[in-house]
Write a structure and sequence with these properties.
Layout (H helix, E strand, L loop, with lengths): L3 H4 L4 H17 L9 E3 L2 E2 H19 L5 H9 L18 H16 L4 H9 L12 H18 L6 H8 L1
Antiparallel strand pairs: 1-2
The chain binds fe (ii) ion (FE2) (2 copies).
Length: 169
């Protein structure tokens, strides 16, 4: 029987696809800046986004769902692309939970080409806090995995060690 860790590991070809898209986004956008911003607990926004994108792919693999994998990875990597530290007191950060999907989408559209699925994912990932539900399968997967990762991060136990090693290669 497989362990949870084994279940959550992507097949080699999917892991390679994930790394390729991650590297492209790192080149084309300012995603790297998210490393300076704390997301939850001790996890920075960049690590959060990498983990969410990776585990979106893992969930799809476990459930054998047919999705647009490229959009799933890109949309998940950019879902929190708001580029500020929401813990810092600033008027522009008010109502962060409600407003950051729109800010992230605006930034993403400024820095790269965003398709309809990626737009749906970024815009609706905070559902049900923001009232409009996701429309695509990819956005539903993101909505669930984002919440699971956020809960994990709030427990502050450990960070995503394997994933940080993976993206460093
Ligand atoms: Fe978010
Ligand atoms: Fe998130």
């Amino acid at each position: 029987m497989k362990s949870i860790k084994e279940y959550l590991k992507l097949e080699e070809s999917k892991e390679q696809k994930f790394l390729k898209l991650y590297q492209e986004i790192m080149q084309d956008t300012r995603l790297e800046e998210m490393e300076a911003c704390i997301q939850h607990g001790r996890t920075d926004c960049l690590s959060h986004s990498i983990a969410v994108a990776y585990y979106c792919m893992a969930l799809v693999q476990i459930l054998s769902l047919r999705v647009d994998e490229q959009s799933l990875i890109r949309g998940a990597l950019l879902h929190d692309y708001f580029l500020y530290d929401w813990h810092q007191k600033d008027k522009s950060h008010s109502l962060h939970g409600f407003r950051h999907p729109a800010t992230s989408l605006r930034n993403a559209k400024r820095d790269t080409r965003i398709n309809r699925i990626e737009e749906d994912m970024i815009k609706h990932h905070m559902f049900p806090l923001t009232l409009q539900p996701p429309k695509s399968k990819e956005a539903v997967v993101l909505c669930l995995v984002d919440k699971a990762c956020s809960i994990y991060e709030l427990r502050r136990i450990k960070r995503y060690r394997r994933l940080s090693r993976l993206v460093m290669v």
